[in-house]
Every structure is written in structure tokens, then in C-alpha cells.
Amino acid sequence: MKKIIALILCFSAFTTYAAGISLNEILTNPAEYDNQIVEVEAEVIGDLIKDRGGVWINISSKETNIGIFSQRRDLDEIINYWGSYRQDGDIVRIRGTFYSKCPVHEERDIHSDDIEVLKEGAIRKEVIAPYKIRLAIVFFIICLTTAAVYFIKLGCRKKT
Amino acid sequence: MIISPNRSDFSTILNILGRLILGLSAFMLIPLAVAIIRKETSPFFDFFISFLIAASIGFILLILFPLKKEVGWIHAFFAVSMGWLVSSLLGAIPLFLSGHFISFVDAWFEAMSGFATTGLILIQDLDHLSFSHNMWRHLTMFIGGQGIILASLSVLTRARPVAVGFYYGEARQEKILPNVIDTARFIWKVCFIYLILGVCVFSAILYSKGLPVDKSLFHAFWLFFAAFDTGGFAPQAQNIAYYHSLTLEMATVTFMILGAMNFNLHFWIWMKSRREIFKNFEIKTFLCTFFSLQALLYFSLKGMGHFSIFRKGFYQLISAHTGCGFSNLGMGELSQFHPLALISITLAMMIGGGVCATTGGIKLMRLGIIFRTFFMEIKRWMMPFKSVYKERFHHLQELILSDKRIKEAYIFFTLFLVTYIGGAIIGMIYGYQPVMALFESVSATANVGLSVGITAPTMPLALKLVYIFQMWAGRLEFISIFVSLGFILTLFKK
Predict the structure, then answer these.
(1) How many CB pairs under 8 A join A and B?
(2) Closest CA–CA distance from residue B472 to any residue of chain A (Å)
């Protein structure tokens, strides 16, 4: 039943088409874009999340996030990089219907019609700042010295 | 006669602080181990440096300030209030080194929010944060939920009569077992049993949603820490909404409620009588306040549809009432709620959960006592002039509503109310709308963590400091802070 409702919603969405708007603009004015076809560009983050009738991906753009529902279960074949500590996610363009209050999922989401990878993500290079190494050495010496003094003092006190 | 402190008193306090800091440094080894396991090199250095700084300070304090006096209540109270400040400052170091905060104050805010089990966040780009930093963020809630000082001391020292001072100093009103250290250990046992249960449940749900095994396990740990310790942090910026799972939301509700329940009640149900849950005064108060506020919320969200009200309204309300702060709403959705809905959530946050639990706020017991006192007064006026009347209530046993209990309830009620309103006024001075300013102020003081958007890296610095103070004072329930202030003031009287 939910599948049918989702299909109907996808195809009967309001004909107004808002292209190239920022995610922040949509989320700060949800009433304006409710039930409209929107096109957003953002980074894919996290994981592919399974759900009844499709999958979820989460996208992020300038500290703004939203869940995208898609009926395509093969999204992990299209998206190669998922944003995390280790990697920058693929930048995707999503075209779909924005729901301020989705009647199927009871969430604020976008039901995607089309997902296109604009820019492939990349593995993030871990950079260790030189000051961190210097700090670690300095505090290692301090910690070792203080611990030694403390345990010597403790030993002396026990003897007396 | 008020005790006037001398040099040996300060030496004793600093010695306790040294032990506490050493305990805290030991906890930092957990994220350090995660950094090694996950091969996160830069975070490894963040935690290694923080561990070394904390351990060095701990050892220096122990060397320079020996225990010169038998530890008394005044030392315990002072050490508790200072201990939470020092812990949050040291706990902020690895967070600041991560590069996800625009200033050290922001990292301090986040650390205090974690230790106080609040859940308000100022972190940037959370979705790219390392596993080890996320482990630390969530671990601070677990440590804070148990009570930093008692958590450290129950591991480091043997039972001493003064442990009671630390126990009460960390805003726990009831002992479960005659010995406070045994009580702390019982709380730890309860937590570990629920931890195993919680991790199994959460990881199974997350794995079924398609997350890899290792990630499911880590997320399960973090969600448990945040739910049971009523903290409200989540590893992703969308909080619980990231998972798009009603099943997970319901599981978090269960652990939120368990965390908000009085640990004494857990003990009673486990060891003595399960019927207690039906008779308990706090549970009855909770049901009464929760359903009243749910009704208010229902009418304010009327246009949303029944299931939507349940999914969005119920979840936010239970999250607020238990002091957890998890949210399954999209960005900016909460601030777009009807003002009446925001007021009902604010009221739920103000009340909080049970005494001797991990929640903040006025607490169910005190609110129940205040209501009972009101009805008791009405009954008194309706009785013959010379009659003596005492109200009773059931909390583990039959108790008389004594004047001492009533006085305590009113003192804490007033203190919380003044802080809630004070924070709201400061928020309004900075130009925020009254309802929003009150919401955020209550959320910080009652250690909830729901936000209508005021808490952001761009908010004024003074407001960040005000919220840090509110989280700290609200978590310790003011008394140990006032005692410490009194302790300092006596120095100037000399």
C-alpha cells in the first residue's frame, strides 16, 4: 500500500519546478517548496539505509541536512564515496519532490526521481599537524617525570 | 558556626581534584584505543596529548598538595563543583584539537554539554568526525551520567563516610544501599546490564537497516550512552532522524525512560517487588504530567494527523520529559512548531525525570510534593480547626509529607525557576523571541539538549558562557556550587 502511495506521490507532485536552490533555502522556507519538484546539490554522507519500498541516503550542504528517499535499491552502485571521517562524499544533484510533512514517512524529506553524481568524492588525507607531535613529546616527558616523582614519594612515605 | 577554610583545606581539595583528574585521564584511554583500532592517526595524537596533559596535572596536584586533613563534606562539595568545571575543561582539549570547533569555548561548551548529559552541540561538520572523537563525546555523557566524582572515586578508593558528600554534591538525593560506594557500584552494575541489552538491540536494528557490522556496533554503543544517560548526542548531524527508522526511535524511547527512572526504583523492581512500579509516587506523577502535556501538544499540532503527532510530537515530548534531547525532526522543524507545542515541550523539560537518575530539571518527586502540598492545604482548610492532618505518599515505602520535604521541594523548584527565567531574559536581551529564549534556557538548565536553533557556533559568546553555567549549575542542582561560593567568600571575611 505504502509503495502505491509513494508512486502516486512521486508522479502527481505539483508541477512547479525549483531548480538550483540551496538546501538551506528549502529548509528555511519549507511551506514555499512543499510538494514541489526541487533540484539540490549536496554531499552524500553516512550510509545507505534500507527501508520498505526503497532506500534512504542523507545529504549535507553547508551544515544543512536532509534525508532522500529513493526507490532505486542500487544507489550504492552509483555512489562510490559516502562522506565520513575517512572520505569526502560524492557531490550529487538530486531532482525530486520535497515534502515538508511526507505523508508516507512522516518526515521532512525529498522523494528523488533522479540522482546524478556531479563530482566524485575522495579519500581524505590525514594530516598530522607538526605542533601536535611536538606537544606530545613535551607532555610525554612532563608526564613521565611527574609520575616518577609521585611514585618515588609514595614509596618513601610507605617506608616511613 | 561557619567553617572558615585554611591552607590545609585547599590542599585537601586540590588533592581530591588531582585524583579526579587522574581518573578522567584513565577514561581518555578508551577513545585512544578506538583511534588505534580504527587507525585514526590524527585523533590518536589528540587523545594522547590530552591524556598526557590530564595525567601530568593530576600527578602535579598529588605531589604538591598532600591530603592534610580528613576529607569533610565541605571539601567534597567544593571538589564536586570544581571537579565538573575542570573535567569539562580537560575534556574539551581533544575536541578542540579535532579542528571541528571554531574556538576553545565551543569545545568547552560541547564537553560540558556531554558531562552534564545535556546534548546541546556547537560542533561543526559532525558527519566527518572521527570514531574516536565520537566515542569521547558519547563517553562524556556516560561518565557524567554516573557522576564524574563518584565514578572516579568508586574505582580509586575504598568506602569512606565522606563519599556521601560527593554523592549528594552530585545532586543525588537517595542512597540505594547503606554504603554510598556500594550504591555507586550498584548503579554501575545496572548500567552495564542495560548497556549489554541496549547495544544488542540497537546494533541489531542498525544492522538490519544496512549499516556495516562495526559501524552498527559503534553507533549502538553511542546511542545507548545518549539514551540511557539521557544525554542526547548522536554521531550524525541529523540526530535520530539520520536513521529513518521508527523501530529505532521506539527502542530509544525505552532506554530514555529507563534512564530517567530513579535508580532506587530499578533496585526495588529487580531485587524486591515488581509491584512498586504501579504504586510509585514518581511514576504516578510522570504519567499525570506526561499525559496532560501530551494532550496539550495534541491540540496544538491538530492539523498534522494522528500518526504524525505520535511520531513527531510524542517523541519530542518523551525526549524532553526524560531529559534526553534526542530529536527525530528535520533541521529547523522544531522552531516551526506551534508556540503552544513549544510551551508544552518546555514544561516537560522543566519537570525532568526521577531523583537519583541521570536527568536534570525540577524532578518528578519535587513537583509531585508541591502538588500534594497544594491539595493538603485545601484539605486542611476544610477540616475542623484543631485537627492534625498529615499527607502520605508511596515511594518505595509509605512516607509522610513532612515539612522538611516540602521545604526542600520548594527551594529546588524556586532555584530552577529563577535559572530558567534568568537564562531566558539574557537570551531576550540578545534579541531572541521570548518563547525561543525560554525553550533554550530550560533545555540548558534541565540538561535536555533540544534546540530551537539558538545554540549555534554563531551565537554570542556571552550566551555560550551563560549556557555553560546553566548546564553546570543545573546538573549539580546548585547546592554544591553555592557551598563552594560560600567557602570562597569566607576567605574575604577573615
Answers:
(1) 123
(2) 27
- C-alpha cell of A126? 590525514
Question: Looking at the structure, do residues A118 and A137 belong to the same domain, yes or no?
Answer: no
The mean-pLDDT minimum among A53-62, B152-161, B280-289 falls in B152-161
Look over chain A and give the mean of its residue pLDDT values, rounded to a whole number.
Answer: 87
Q: How confident is the model at residue A146 (pLDDT cuts 50, 70, 90)?
A: very high
Provide the domain count of chain A.
2
- CA-closest candidate to residue A109, choices B355, B134, B330, B410: B330
Q: Residue A107: its chain B contacts at CB < 8 A?
A: 241, 244, 328, 330
Q: Are residues A113 and A138 in the same domain?
A: no
| Averaged pLDDT for residues B426-439 | 95
Domain identity same for A114 and A143? no
Query: Looking at CA atoms only, how far is residue A126 from chain B in angstroms?
Result: 7
pLDDT of residue A13: 47
- For residues A115 and A147, membership in a common domain is answered with no
How far apart CA B39 and CA B43 sit, in angstroms, is 9
**Mean per-residue pLDDT, B247-257:** 95
What residue numbers bound the domain in which A134 lies? 127-160
pLDDT (0 to 100) of residue B29:
96
Amino acid at residue number B212: P
Q: Which residues contact B245 (CB under 8 A, 6 or more apart)?
A: A49, A51, B205, B209
- CA A124: distance to chain centroid? 15
For residues A73 and A138, state if they share a domain. no
Cα-Cα-Cα-Cα dihedral sign, residues B102, B106, B111, B113: negative
pLDDT tens digit string along B70-97?
777 777 788 888 888 999 999 999 999 9
What are the Cα distances from residue B392, in Å, to B265, B368, B397, B406, B478? 18, 12, 10, 12, 28
Same domain for A85 and A109, yes or no, is yes
pLDDT tens column, B158-180 = 445 555 566 666 655 555 556 66
* A85 at B interface, C-beta within 8 A: yes
Average pLDDT over residues A17-41: 86
* DSSP H or E segment with residue B134: helix B131-146
- Asked if residue A144 and residue A132 are part of one domain, the reply reads yes
Proportion of chain B above pLDDT 70, given as a percent: 92
Residues A77 and A145 in one domain: no
pLDDT reading at B349 higher than 90: yes
Say which residues have a Cβ less than 8 Å from residue B172's Cβ, sequence separation at least 6: B147, B355, B356
Angstrom distances, CA of residue A93 to CA of A42, A97, B77, B267 = 7, 13, 57, 54
Say which CATH number the domain at A83 has: 2.40.50.140
Alpha helices for B301-432 (secondary structure H): 306-308, 315-321, 339-351, 364-382, 403-429
Residue B66 CB contacts under 8 Å (≥ 6 apart), including other chains: B11, B15
Residues of B in contact with A30 (CB under 8 A): 332-333, 336
Contact partners, residue B257, CB within 8 Å, separation at least 6: B318, B322
